[in-house]
Amino acid sequence: MTLLQEFGVFIEASQRRSFTDDIMHHARRALLDWQGSLIAGSDSLAAQKLRASYEEELGFGKSSVAGTTQTAFTRAAAFMNGSISHIAEFDDIYRDGAYHPAAPTISGVFALAQSRHASLNDLLRAIIIGYEVSTRISRVIQPSHYQYFHTTGTAGVFGSAAACAFLLKLDATQACAALATAGTFASGLQQAFRSDSMTKPMHAGHAAEVGLHAVLAAEKGMSGTPDLLEGSAGFGAALSKNPRWEELFEEIGQSWSITQMTFKNHGCCGHNFPGIDAVSNLLQQYPIVPEEIKKVRVGAYQATNDVCYYVHPQSAFEAKFSLTYTVAARIILGRVREKAFLEQALQDPRIYALENKIELFEDPECTSHFPVRRSAKVSIEMQDGTIYRHYQKTRHGDPDEPLTDAELMDKFIELSEPRIGINKAGQLASLIFNPDTEDLHELTLLW
């Protein structure tokens, strides 16, 4: 069998599988976090413009779109929600694949689940499978893939397709065809990160939509190329150097990627996190007064310096990809959540002044552990000559230092409350974690 044929067999067989309460709980955490990210992006300028571009398609179909009471046809809803849930930069991460699975995977299968009147339990099970297939692909194509490609746009097509194929109970042949068709549309270039544009979130939306579309086509009998992953002119050959296909199915069905997710504790690019967390650790341990700081040195892995290079950012987008800004904001403001990216914070003279004292460098040890471990080394030198140091070996929120349910809920409420109110936010979270909730319409009534 080809690799995608094996995944097709896995998807069909998983339809008869029972998942433990613990695994289902992890799926609920992923759904809650996606909802928070979706709601956080729903009132942004980018979301407004995106919905306006779909003006002719709103008001039809059965699938909800964040930020409007109008519904849309399934594929349009998948694209819009996939994009909107990636705008605020709060969506989850699969660390080993440098990949955000929620935006493409959940956005695609949520729209489909609504249109086919699936239950919350069906949705959660599909999310688990979508995460499993796409994270495995994302992992074995790294680190070379991430040099030029945005994994959320590339591996994300397999997340949406696998989840949707599972939800529709496609057989192995159909599921393989869906994955193969989705894979040929994989796209998303790193250059989209390197300027203040609205393109990057659309990678996730495109992945959600094409994965869903591929499944709908396969359901009607459209075929795909079974060796699309490993073929001589296929996905791996084009988008990676020496992909480790031999690792693709290790422990499949025994361990589940959804239990190994990183949930963001900060509202910016995840490459900033180790530096922010290291600073947080020092601030908690020592009596550091910001005005008495002489110099801050941040050693990061190379990808951080490649992606998060802005200094004195001029926009919220640039700030989210600025290690100097986010570290300074953590010291001055106490948190790097939404308020850190408002105009008032961007123009804060205290943050600006502290940025001038921050020196970035590549740390070879941190680079050697990427992407399996995201780390940073930070030293803060005070005016009196005292130097405080911390080696942050992982990010707070990564699987080896996960956010608690309470911390995840705190983040969700902070993102949702300004948009839908504290009561609706609380009700939405309760519905997601209530095992008796069946109707997805109950969730979308609270957006």
Rg over CA atoms, rounded to whole Å, is 21 Å
CATH homology-level superfamily of the largest domain: 2-methylcitrate dehydratase PrpD
In CATH terms, what is the fold-level topology of the largest domain? 2-methylcitrate dehydratase PrpD
The oligomerization state is single chain
Average the pLDDT over all residues and give the rounded result. Answer: 96
Record field, number of beta strands = 6
Q: What is the annotated CATH architecture of the largest domain?
A: Orthogonal Bundle
Low-confidence regions: none
Structure description:
- This protein folds into two domains: 3-264 and 405-444, 2-methylcitrate dehydratase PrpD (Orthogonal Bundle); 270-392, 2-Layer Sandwich (60s Ribosomal Protein L30, Chain: A), CATH 3.30.1330.
- 51% of the residues lie in helices and 8% in strands.
- It has helices at residues 3-14, 21-41, 45-53, 74-87, 102-115, 120-140, 151-154, 156-167, 172-183, 200-219, 235-239, 273-285, 302-307, 316-320, 323-333, 343-346, 349-355, 364-369, 405-420, 422-433, 441-444, and strands spanning 58-64, 71-72, 293-300, 358-362, 376-382, 387-392.
- Strand 5 (376-382) and strand 6 form a beta hairpin.
